[in-house]
Structure formats: structure tokens, C-alpha cells
Design brief:
4 copies of one chain form a homotetramer.
Chain A lengths: L3 E8 L3 H16 L4 E9 L3 H11 L3 E3 L2 H6 L5 E4 L6 H10 L3 E4 L7 H14 L3 E3 L7 H11 L6 E9 L20 H4 L3 H17 L2 E9 L4 E3 L6 E3 L5 E8 L4 E7 L8 E8 L2 E6 L5 E6 L9 E5 L24 H16 L7 H20 L3 E2 L3
Parallel strand pairs in A: 1-2, 1-4, 2-3, 4-5, 5-6, 7-12
Antiparallel strand pairs in A: 7-13, 8-11, 8-17, 9-10, 11-12, 13-14, 14-15, 15-16
Helix pairs in contact in A: 1-9, 4-5, 5-10, 6-8, 8-10
């Protein structure tokens, strides 16, 4: 069987540029599809960096202007791995050029901008997806299956946290390569858009839409040197963000994110409590799903630590990897997402989350930030 | 050395009546003091139950009317172990009779009532204490010491949860023996007063006062059969309660309690994140303190699970018990609290939390319940 | 109902003297029986220490000569809490005097001596028991029930370890109060008799008799100051002991004990692997039983951490204590053992392990020490 | 900088063929070297399977006779990924042809055969390495660094286990693709050669040579259908293997492996107890190193769970991957091993373990199997 090449045009070469590129390299070694990604071109403003990245990963060519890249005839897919403030313009232009688009999360700076992106890709009828990669961690996908099978019964609670500690140092600057996440102009928001966005995406996938929220944010370090201006400037992002609220199914939400939780590197955790089963997960041990099954015999009921590494179809994605007990890494979540995207192209049924799916997260982010500002409960827009 | 007897008059014979009585029995076997509790009398409306309890535990006499008990000349201490709606009347009358008072938590139905109790004991100048026993779990006391030593540096976050799952069944009735905690009239509130009260007491002890809060509550099961009326009646208590807010030291609070978290029996957990150290604790493994020490050598930094069982003075209370590695139970927290109360009598310096200390928790409970009702941020009264 | 008093004569006042006495105090508060222990007399060679202990715990009288104690008419039970080399003489004399005997473990210095003790109590027809208390940790008792129900199927492996680290310091002396466990003359053996004895007792209770063993021992610190002679003397005990072998049911044994495992205080752990279920336990978290149930649905199979604290009959002993989630301590294992002993007296069916039951452990200890000496496999005597 | 191509000739296409090939693909994306692996040819007796594998992974050509492959001028490296009984012949022939050789573990069927392989590669002066990949798990490499820094002080104990449960079913056949590990003729031994070989390799790397051992083995299922003969035949391999012994540094060894430990998929664990520090590791959570540091302040001493994922040079290999907290998979251990092999070629200093290094593991395997047969202690050959 000869495969159809899918020519990738990558914009950006940072952490996510590497993670996505790795996925394009890996996917065909482990997963079957009629489509095969080809590393056609990488784009960066700095030509030397683009060249170096292309050489490291095997991209066939480079560009230094993304407008040229999105106009190239030999490109099928545009992958957007640049700071959040650039997503919309690139995506809309790429859509106009008829390209499929894979966009880093969060989709946009806010839901208004996100809506324009959704309209652009839907008008252009191009395949589109947002890189909320945690849906494709096998343990998380298994959680989704258990919920869809009705194992949990009525849901009462959904709790999620994403805790980090890397910005506690007050002499860390804001802005520029690697630190744009601290710069409001580039990031649009702080931990809410960067970290809670992941928590929210997983939550609505697992537990359905949210209806109302109430939120507080905090900026612990008020001023930081800005690497672009060279001056100490006000910090505009949220360092920490806590919100509670209600899901449409009546369950309660409790979400928190911060970069000031000493001892946590990337502690994305969630727990969902159902009438008959509860589930828990922790990114720090991403290969495990915690399961409490109330239907177990009562004297030996307890939280089960399920090592989601069986190479059987029951453990999502894992039959393509190694043997039971041998774990895969964080990076595999991207490989799985590409695999699902390719399967979507094979079958004509696009993989989630699409831009429209991701817009819902954006609307919740808008609602929580408005609530933090007004100190009022806010209904999530639909 | 001959010890001074301290004659106990116990009101109530339920779970807490047993836990306190056990502590009175145990304390002199393990801890030194010039005072020694004597089980003088137990009071219950049901004479047969009072007798049975007295026989089981060795109380010398019984009463069926608490007013008689608090008037008895041979009683030094009144211990109040009855539903919350009875605390104030008994405590105020006991104070008038010059008795020392040990009152179950929460102190009162609300802070207005609590204030009257504080005024009564302070006017009567009687020793008084509220049974927030978790302060005396050795791992929790160790946390307090580490904080007081300044090990944590600036505090950013304090998170606490108290999760249970015993009221999920909708055919569980409300009211009466063992189930008065579901009856608004007897309990005054639901999980907020029953469970969050513990979380708040520990928090203000460890991290200082709270300034403002925002809260939501939920009652999942709206109606339950009432065992006293025999009719299905509206459930008035909160089944779940989530709040966030700020401590006076600028750190953020995130608190949650529920009786609908399947898989959790009595999962009281807290975590406190400081600039230089973070601490965590879980009632389900009460003998462990989780410690992340940022001053550790960076390549071997990690969360330490400290088994707080060394029989050395460094592990609070533990030198009085067994040998390293051998744990004590939940019940020991009450024994420690009595030990500290007796030491307070020895030295003339009363043990915490006094009624006044516990009033602060009551004020925070008032604030969160008002916030839940008004859907507004509320400042904590001082 | 009036209870029959059971007058206790305690010999010894050390760690175990306290643990047993505590159990006599606690048992009637929590467990029902027609018998009730009474603290009649404590015996110690040092009169002042005997008096102090009697005052602390409420013993009615003291003795300084155990021969007088065992001859006293008002004593029903002799409890032997002295170093191992004194067990036999006291027990045999007590049996002659018709006393019930509760003896600390290990039963004797070796199986020959143990056999004489067994013959003495069986000839005298007195109730007798050895304090292998870990059988009465609720999680361990639950393991026994699961095995007896046939849940595990064919057993393949039984592993046990008891790791400590308190003798690593080479300047720790041997002999005398608190350190007699390092003195061969008083202890008879090192970690084998002190720690592996516990592991073996639990193992044969759960998994049946052992048939053959092969063992190695090591003494890391060859000489220590002797507190009784004041001189540096050869250390005769085993500091570490490892053995493997076979159980009669065909399963394999792997046992290890040491006092040189830095980081372990009293890490008694066992794991048993059956065809259909595996079980694990750790004294450091004694309230949990780890259960892997192969009959669970395959995609959510995992090790369950069962918090054995439900106040239902399904969780052994726990319905007598608090509410679900609230743990009991190490000390409760002794209380449970006394409770079972009293129930044995009520029903005329003696509680295990009797002296004869404990002799089996002694025979295995003899076999492993012989194997360590001869470097050959040794069959366990029957 | 233009890199020197290193043409790989892969023999085999099973689990290990995939794992190694993946490493060749990944290494240049993440690690720097002057050498770059090129997937030149894959060899399998079944032409269709060779073709399919080549297509999946991008090998340029195929062979169906390994003798042709090892004779090809365009091949630099022979990678041996076939059953153990074929290692020696291929390796010796490849050495004669001047090829570098990367051989799957265990090196050989026994140490006599292994010695011939060592002599062949040393005579031919070709770079050689054995795929004991667990040395390159970052947490394990970190353990090595801590030991080399002297952090542990005197070592008392080294314990290792490798537990699986996949052969409990008695109707599982032996022999043929995927099941050759159960066939004595192909595998040479059971869990000893397959699993304990890993444990031993890590142990001697971390803790130095072993001097004497005593061992037992067991075959639980005595007969299994043989897929090659179609008949029920005696099972010749060891299903379980336990040994203890001494390291040259005086520390005690306790090793165990089995495929009958229900609940364990690939539970390779080790623990090493030193005077000042103890370390533990578990393949099921391979990104964590457990560290007990006795030099910590005594009141907060405890086992630390170090998440070995910092992208700093202090966490071996991790600076080449993602950001702190994001784990890598089992497969990365092979990538790291290739990276070290390439660095060895760059610098002229070959990476460990060489064939000679791996011979030591073979000698220990010989000793334990002899001990299991003779039931005597056996000295390890040097």
C-alpha cells in the first residue's frame, strides 16, 4: 500500500515545535494510516535558527516569513507553534490558502478572536485541530471510555489543578524567547490560558459543558524586568487562578492553577467523583489511572492504581507500543494526536478537538477572567 | 508525687463521648501532669444508655439532666459532646457554675452564639477549650513547628479538602441519633460546620487569619425522610461547600468539603506552599507529613514522606509512645489534647484552641455561608 | 451482667510491659467479654521501677521476685515480658502453679527449650498464648480471611522483610536495659529471633508450614562495648538474615531481616502472590491492605489500596472503634489479641497462637540458623 | 558540520528490533554526535516480514540470510536482536568481518560461549556493546552518580526483584515467535537469563562485583505444548529464581525473579542501603528515584520521591528532552544507549557495557544456576 504524503509546514521551533515534529517522525513507525507526514518546511524569523532546526529534524526547506509558507503550494498542513498573539492572523491566512491547520493551545487570545478563527476554517472547509494533547494520554483516554460506558453514574464533583513552581524567583524576567508566557501582550493571560486551558479542555471532554463560574486570580510578583524593553515593567498576567462553578450536568467544578506551588513541576491532576466510580490522574505519573470502583466487594474496596500499559486494545493506543509494564512518555500524547488526525483524514471524520471544540475552552477562560475582574459569578457564553 | 484529681462530667455518649472518654483514660498512662482526670459522671437523657456507657467506661455516676450535672459540686470539668444546637446553653450555664468547659466543635451554631459563649467563659474565668483535635496529630503539630521556625518562607497557597462519601444514598434519613448531622436544626450547617470547620481551624493555626472569602454550596439530595417527624422533609444542610479567598498574609485559600466524593472515607488533606518549603498531610495516613524542601540539593529534591513516629522530642508527642516506625491512631489526637489541657492547668497557661480561638473559625463559617447565599465576596468579621 | 475478673501478674516493665498493660486497660472499653483483666501486680527486680510502673498504670501491688508472683493465689495470668533467656524458666514454673500464661515472642531460645514450655503448659492444662501481635492488625486479619475464602487460588510466592536501621552506629553498646537485643546471651539470636520470628509467624498462619530452607546471616559490626561487663566484646547475634525455601503448599519463600537498612524504622512488609489474587502489607502503613484482584475487569485491573477502617464486621475488629477512615494504632493489635484471648476463655476455645503454634516458628528459626552455619539446605523439623 | 553516517544492519524484527530501530531514529533529533545512524538493512528469514519491517521503519534494504548481511561492505554496525542461542555465531562472524556489534542481552547462552564472543571482538578490535538498557534510565544513571560521589558511604544491602505474571496460564505454549523465552533450547534459561540478567547488570554497575551466591529455582508449570514440535514437552526453563550472596564490598545480595507474581507486569525494582543514604527504583515508575538521605535534618528525614525530569545537566540525559515534570518513556533508555555509543565513537572511548563487561553478568548467571542445581554455595568465576 502506498501512502499519501502530508506535507507539513511548521511555524516555530521552540518546545512545541520540537514536540510536534517528534510526533510527525514517530507516528508512522507505530500507527497505521493511509497518510504519512512529511517534514516539508519550517519557518522562523531567524534564518540560522530555522536552518539549525531543519537540520536537526530533517525538514526539507526553511522559510523566514510565515506568509510565504502558508502560500506555498507544496504545503498541506500548517502547524502553528508560536506565541498566542500570533495564532489568529496565521490561522486565518492559512485557512484562506486552503491549508489544514494544527494550532497550539490555547486557540486564541480570547473567544472573540477564537470565533473568527473557527469561522475561517469552517468557511474554508479545512481540517483543523488544536493541540490539547492530554486527551491522548492513554490513562486519560481510558477515563473517557469508562465515563462513556456509564461506569461512573451520576457525577457529583470534578476537580482539577495544574501546579508549577518555576516563576517563584522574582528576578526571572518577562518576555522574549522562553519567557513570553510571562508577558501579557504575547500570552494574553497567565496560568489560566497556559495551564487551566488544559484542565478545562479535558474536563469538558470528560464531563460536558460548564454553565457558571466564579473566579479569583492573583499576581504575586507585581513587576519584572522585560527582556524586550530592558525595563522593569508591571506584570500583567495571572500568576495563580482559582475558580469554582457548575457543569451543565449539575456537578461542581473546583479548578486551580499556579506557578507558585513549590515542589510541583507540572502537576496537572484531576479527580472526578461519580455515584458508582471515581477516577483520578496525575501528569507526573501519566501512565497510571486511579480508579475507585464502588461495585467492588465492599471489604476490598479501595483506590486502584491501574498501570495503563497493556498492549491490548483495552488500554488506548498501547497495543502499538511495547509490552505490559513498559511506559511511554509525555511525547507520545502528541504522536497519538497526529495518529488520530491521520485516521480522521483516512475516514473523513475529523479528530477532536477542532477549533470549534477549543472555542468552548476559550469561552470558559473569558468567563473566569471576567469573574476575577468583576468579582461576580459569570455565565459561560454559548 | 500525688496528683490533683480533675473530675469530669461528660454530656453525651456518642462517637465523641467515647473518643474523649478514651483520652481521659489514656492520658495519665502516657503523659505527665500534676492533674489526673477522673470519670465522675456521664449525662444522657436516656437513663439506660447512660448506665451502660458508665459501666463500659467506668464513670462513677450518671445524670439524666445536664442542668443537674453542671450544678454538681464534685464536677470540675464539663465536656460537651451533644449536637451543636445544645452547645451554647450548656456552656453558658456551666460557666455560670464555674466549671471548666471542653466543648466539641464547632463551638456554636454561628458566631453570634459563639460570642456569647466566649463572653460567658471569659467572665467566669474558667479554663475552656474546643475539641479541634487535628492540631494534635503529631504530623500536623510538626507542620506547625516547621512553619513557626520560618522554614517555609513566604506562603503562597493553602489548600484543604475534607472529602467523604457516606451520604450519597438518597434513602439515608436525616435527624436522630447518628444522623443529626444531616438535620439543619440540630447541626446548624452541613459539611461546612462539620468538616470545613476542622480545615479552617488547622489553617488559621498554621497560616494565620483569613480576610475575605467567596463560596458556593450545593445540596445534592434535596429531600430526605426525617426520623423525628417520620416525614420526607427538605434537606437544609449543605452537602458540599467550596470556597476560595485570601489569608491576611497574602496567600490564597482553596477549600472544599463534600460527602459525595465516592472513594473517600474521611479524606481531610491540606497542602501549604511556601517559597522554600511545602508541606502536605492526609488524615488517611495521619502518621506521615509530606515535605518538599527547596533547600535540598537540587538533583535529589523531591517530596519526602516523613513517618512521624520517632520517639524523640523532635516528633511531637511521640516520645511518650512506642518505638520508631510504630504508629498511633486517630484517638491519640484527643489524648494529646487532654495532655496539653492538663499541662495548661499545671502551668496556668491555657491550651489552644480556647473558645475565643474557635470563635474565629465560626466567623469564617459565617462569612462563607453568607457568601454562598449572596453569591458575593464577603469579608471575615474580626 | 457482672464480669469475671482476670487478675494479671505482669513480669517486666519495658516496651512490651507497657504495650500489654495498655491492652489490658483498653480491651473492656471496646470489646465485649465475660472476662475483665485486672492489673493485680507487676514484678521487677528494681523495686523503685516496679513502684513507678505500678503507679503509672494502676497495678495494685508489686513484686521483686518473679517466683513469689507466680506463687500468688490472687494471680490468674502471668504475662512474661522479660528477655528471651528468662521465658522458659518462668513459664514452666507458672504452669506448675496453674497460671494461664501470656508470653512475649519468640517463645524460647530455641525449639528444644520451646518444646519443654509446650509440654509444661499442656501438662498443666493452662490457657497459653504467645504475643505475635501482628496477626491482629485488621489488615493482616483481613488477608487471612481472603486466603481462607480461597480468593487467592494456588499460591506461588510469599515474600517478607523486616527492615530496620537502628544499629548502624558502631558505638552503640550491647547488653543491658533496652540493648539486650544485641546480646546473644539474653536474646538467643539477632534479627532472626527478634524480627523474622514475626514474619514467620504471620507466614505460617497465612500460608501454612514451611518444609525446607536455606539461609545466610551476617554480623556487620563484629565487636561492641558490653554494658554489663564494661568491655569491648564480640557480637554474637546476626545483624542481618536472609533465607529462601519452600512452603508445604509448593510456594516459594523469600525472607529477609536486617537492622542495617538505612531509611527503614520498622518496615515489616509481606507480599503473597496467588493465581487469582495477590496481597501486600506494610507495618509503616498498617491500616492498609494492598490487593490485586485478577478477577477485576481487565482494563481497570490494578493494585488496590484498601483502607481497612470501616466500622463494619467485614473489616476485622474495626466495628468496635471509630468511623470509616479513622485509623487505629500499632497498640490496638495487642488490645485485639487480649480481646481474642478473653473470647477464648468465654467459649473455652483458646486463641492462637498457643505455645504449640509458636513452637513451629521456633523450629523454622532453628532450621535457618543451622543452615546459615552449615551453608546447607535444612529441612524444618516437625 | 557534516556528520559521519553509521550504517546499521539489523538482524531481527521483534520487540527488540523495534526498540533499537526507534532509538536509531530518535537519537539524532535529541543528542549531539559526529555520527549519525542510518537504517541500511534489516535481516529476517521471512522475506515478507523483513520487507514489511523495512517499510514501516525506513530501512533501505533487506536480507534474508544474516551471513550475507554481516559480509556487506556498506554495513558498519551489526545489531543482534534474535534469540539467545544465535548470538554467538552471528557476533563472532560479524567480528571477523570487522563490524561493530551491538548485541541484545544476555550476551550468550553461558559464560563459556560469552568468553568466545569477547575474544572475537577484542581480537577484531571492533566497538561492541550489550543492550542492558536500564543503565540509561535517567533515574538509574542518577543513582550511579550518587554512588560514585560517595553519598551512600559503606553499602550494607542490595536487593533486586524482577516480577512478572504473564506465564501463569498453563495453556500458554512454549517456543516460536514471541514465546521462545519459554523454550530452553532458544533461551538458554528462564527468568534468570531474561530478567535477573538485567538486575545483575545494574547491580554490578552500581555496587561492584559479586563473590559468592546461593540460589534456588522453580518450574511451576512442568509441561507445555511446544509450538515447533506440536507436542506437549517438558519445560526446561526456570519459572522463578531466587538467590542471595555477597558482593566483593561486603554487602549482601537478595535477588528474585519470577513470571508468577500476579499483579506485576514488569516490576523490576532495586534498593540499595548505604550507611548515609539509601536508594530505590521501580521500572513501573521509571522516572522516579527514591532517596533516603540520612544527612537530612532528623525531624524531616524521609524517603524522597525524586521526579528525575529536570532539563538540567544534573538529571542525566533530561536536558535534551522536554521541560521539568514531563516524563520520557521506556524507549528513551535505548536512545540514550545509542547516544552514548555514538559519543564513544566520537571520543574513541567505548561505551559500557562492552561484551567484556557483560561477561561478568554471564559468570554470575552460571554460578546461580550451578548453585540451584547442586544446592551448594558457588563462588563467582573471575
Amino acid at each position: 500500500m502506498s501512502k499519501k504524503n502530508l506535507n507539513i509546514g511548521m511555524i516555530g521551533y521552540g518546545f512545541m515545535g520540537r514536540a510536534h515534529t517528534n510526533a510527525y517522525c514517530q507516528v508512522s513507525h507505530f500507527f497505521d494510516s493511509q497518510h504519512k507526514p512529511v517534514l516539508k518546511a519550517v519557518c522562523a524569523r531567524d534564518e540560522a535558527k530555522a536552518k539549525s532546526f531543519a537540520e536537526q529534524w530533517g525538514y526539507e526547506s526553511i522559510e523566514t516569513d510565515w506568509r510565504k509558507l502558508v502560500a506555498r503550494k507544496d504545503i498541506d498542513v500548517i502547524d502553528i507553534c508560536v506565541p498566542n498573539n500570533l495564532h489568529a492572523e496565521i490561522a486565518i491566512e492559512a485557512a484562506k490558502n486552503g491549508k489544514m491547520i494544527l494550532c497550539e493551545k490555547p486557540l486564541a487570545m480570547d473567544s472573540a478572536q477564537g470565533l473568527k478563527m473557527v469561522e475561517a476554517v469552517e468557511k474554508a472547509k479545512v481540517a483543523n485541530m488544536v493541540w490539547y494533547n492530554y486527551r491522548r494520554i492513554p490513562a486519560v483516554t481510558l477515563a473517557k471510555r469508562l465515563i462513556d460506558e456509564g461506569k461512573l453514574g451520576k457525577i457529583f464533583h470534578y476537580r482539577a489543578k495544574f501546579l508549577q513552581d518555576w516563576t517563584i524567583k522574582s528576578d526571572l524576567p518577562q518576555g522574549g524567547q522562553g519567557l513570553w508566557r510571562l508577558d501579557l501582550a504575547a500570552a494574553g493571560a497567565g496560568v489560566s490560558g497556559d495551564l487551566l486551558a488544559h484542565c478545562i479542555d479535558t474536563a469538558i471532554w470528560l464531563n460536558g459543558p460548564m454553565s457558571t463560574v466564579s473566579c479569583m486570580t492573583e499576581t504575586f510578583v507585581k513587576e519584572r524586568m522585560h527582556t524586550l524593553t530592558g525595563k522593569v515593567e508591571k506584570v500583567g498576567i495571572d500568576d495563580a487562578c482559582i475558580f469554582f462553578g457548575k457543569f451543565a450536568n449539575g456537578s461542581l467544578a473546583n479548578f486551580e492553577s499556579t506557578r507558585y506551588a513549590r515542589g510541583h513541576k507540572a502537576a496537572y491532576t484531576f479527580e472526578i467523583n461519580g455515584e458508582n466510580m471515581s477516577l483520578g490522574w496525575d501528569l507526573h505519573d501519566l501512565h497510571r489511572l486511579q480508579v475507585f470502583d464502588y461495585t467492588d466487594e465492599s471489604k476490598i474496596r479501595g483506590w486502584k492504581s491501574v498501570h495503563v500499559t497493556d498492549n491490548s486494545p483495552e488500554h488506548p493506543y498501547m497495543e502499538k507500543w511495547w509490552v505490559p509494564g513498559l511506559s511511554i512518555g509525555y511525547d507520545a500524547s502528541f504522536t497519538h494526536q497526529v495518529a488520530d488526525f491521520l485516521t480522521g483524514l483516512d475516514t473523513g471524520k475529523t479528530a477532536s478537538p477542532t477549533f470549534r471544540d477549543a472555542l468552548e475552552t476559550q469561552q470558559i477562560l473569558d468567563a473566569i477572567l471576567e469573574s476575577a475582574k468583576t468579582k461576580q459569578w459569570v455565565s459561560v457564553a454559548k
